Amino acid sequence: TGRGTRLLASLAPGGIVDVLGPFGAGFTMPGNGSRLWIVAGGTGVAPFIGMAHQLKELDNIILFLGARSNRFLLYKDFFLKAGVKVMTATEDGSEGYRGVVTGLIKSKLENGAQPETMFTCGPSPMMKAVAEIAVDRGISCYASLESQMACGFGACLGCVTKIAGEKRYTTVCGKGPVFDVTEVTI
User: Fold this and answer.
1) Was domain 148-186 assigned CATH 2.10.240?
2) Strands 61-67, 85-90: parallel, antiparallel or unpaired by DSSP?
3) What is the pLDDT of residues 117-168, one digit of tens each?
4) Which CATH number fits domain 25-144: 1.10.3210.10, 2.130.10.10, 3.40.50.80, 1.10.10.10?
C-alpha cells in the first residue's frame, strides 16, 4: 500500500478529506426524445452511476451491461430501481444475451433498432468495437477512456492518448476522459 492509501485508512469515520475535481470533460446528455444507448463493460459502468436519475427523465434510453458472468453485472439493480431500461450480455450465458455486449448491440441493430447517440466505458477492446459499430452506422459515439491519472490536470503527461489520424497526443485527464470516438485512437 502507498502513502495515500495509508492516510485514507487512518481516517476516523466522518473524517474530512480535501479533494480537487472533477477535472476534464464528461458526457453531455442529449435532449429528451433522443435515442441513447449506453454500453458499459464491467467496472466501466462507474461513470454512468451519477447519471442514473438524469437518465430516467429521458425517453428512449437503454443501458447495455456486459460482463463475463451475471456475478459481475455491476449496478444492474441500481439502474433498474432508478427506472432505466437495462439489457444484459454475459459471456457465459448466465444472464441475458449469451456472448459479448457488442454482440447484443449488433443483434439490436440488425433487428432495426438504432440510437442517435452511444456512450461507452469499459475494457478498451469493447470500447473499440463499440466505436467501430457506431462509426460504421453513422451513430455519434462518445467514450470515457480509462487511464492512470497521476496528477489529474495534464501536467505529468501520464495519461496521454493518441489523437486519431495525427502524430500527436492529448491528455485523458485534461481534455477527457470523455472523447468523441472519431477524435482519438482507442
Assistant:
1) yes
2) parallel
3) 999 999 999 999 999 999 999 999 999 998 888 888 788 899 999 999 999 9
4) 3.40.50.80
DSSP H/E element including 143: strand 140-144
Task: Please state the pTM of the whole predicted model.
Answer: 0.87
Cβ neighbours, 10 Å, residue 127: 24
In 10 A of CB 72, how many CB atoms?
16
Where in the chain are the domains? 25-144, 148-186
In what side-by-side order are the strands of the sheet with 117-121?
Answer: 97-98, 85-90, 61-67, 36-41, 117-121, 140-144, 178-180
